[in-house]
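Protein modeling request. Please complete all fields; requests missing the sequence field cannot be processed.
Requester role: graduate student
Desired output: 3D structure, token encoding
Chains: 1
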Amino acid sequence: MVPAAVPPPPAGISLRQLLMALGDSLVEVQAAPAGLDVEIRGVDLLDPEDPPTARPGELVLVIGARGRAACPALRGAGRDGAAAAVVKLDGPGQAAVLTETATEAGVALLSLRNEARWEQVNALARAALDDAPGHPAEGAEEGDLFSLAQTTAILTGGIVSIEDAANRVLAYSRSTDSDEIDDLRRRSILGWQGPEAYLAKLREWGVFQHLHSSDEVIGIASHPELGIRRRLAVAVRSGDRQLGTIWVQEGSTPLSEHSEQALLGAARVAAHHLARRRRELSEDLALTRTLLAGLLEGSTGPQPLANHLGLDAARPAAVLGFSYGTAEVVAAPELTHTELANLISVHSAARHRSALVTQLDSRIYVLLPQLPRSIDTATLRGWGQEIIDAAGRHLGLPMRGSVGCLVSGLGGVPESRREADRILDAMLSADVSTTVAALPDIQAEVLVSEMLTLLSAHPEIRDPRLTDLVAHDSRHQGRLAESLLAYLNSFGDVRAAASQLHVHPNTLRYRLRRAEELTGLDLSRPDQRLLAMLQLRLPPTS
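Delivered output (542 residues):
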């Protein structure tokens, strides 16, 4: 008879990792007779009316007994092989008695702050166990996190690591100069976890307490005597729950001026990845992308996305569009679409918490839902310019950006996206010097571009005489069409047009007469001049 397969024991974490997840603002170690490497494999709530029993490796939450009254539960936990117990003290002097009992029982003792709630420590402990090595979600989307770490390093000019709530290193940026890496980072990377001595210092300085309670970036000064360089840190959150931390260490050069803003954006992007690691949003993220793409394309209404993400569909919204050329991407071999999308995501999230980013075909779009009613196009243009500047500065990639119209709610998003596309189309086809524009900035260029698109698609509405003129130039390597367009663009100023073409004014006059002779055009007629100005802007192959 083949024996039944024994299921593997549940994945666990060390007491040290659990303490990092809970934080010293929640619990305090009173005794650890077996050390901080004892393994925690489960959580159990002990009610005062229950007998004091536990299972091996459990963390026992003694919720019904304070102070000395918890001693029987500690003895029972030790007898049953529990790893640790959490109790609330009942006034001064209780710690010594409980510590002695826990030490004799061989079980770690943690005291819970009086103001803390048992459901909070229970949820955090179980979440830490969910993230244990060997958990089915372990390693999910690691490539995304490493890419995000590298993007954040580029934006801040620092050296980045992303950690989970138990201070395990999940991803880090590449550094070509090992001299830039301080001792804390080196040991964290090699051990995939922050060394306890350094973590104790961070706790002493109040860093972890700040990260547990605040969304703001905290700075840690350089401590050469400890081998610690200056760094910034920010918590990665999903609601009130801290999922992890992003650390940025300063290298041989100071961190960039906008490091804190970039770090805030990176934390908001990382929240999606870390939540996905916990299996909370794996399906949600895919659904979000589908609903977002459908809304931008107009194939899906606004309510599915609003319901899915809890958005107010009646609040103002707008779409930013970004375009980059294939040639530029090829010219920058280290650039990937993911890195560019990360850069845009980080900057967008830093400016607007609800920003959603997706790529459709060769363009990247940012949906900005739930905008303040007081926001204006100039502000959005400024946000777009920050992204364009960052792409050029950090990735060496020339880009163009557009600001779609502000709409009153998510129902108007397809209209905003269409306007963003109209602007990008014009910027790519016309001689527009600006890198980010809204429709009022280049309305004439947009309309002319759309007229040219119409002419290009419908040869029947072109003047055949102008078509013949372009063909004549092509056969004879002539410049009659080019000269005629320069003359018309210069409002009939022969000298100005000749200067633009680098020819003598008499040469230009000859070309104009020749063009009229060949085509039968009459340049004294305004309608013919108007049509020529449009049609001669078409590419020769149209």
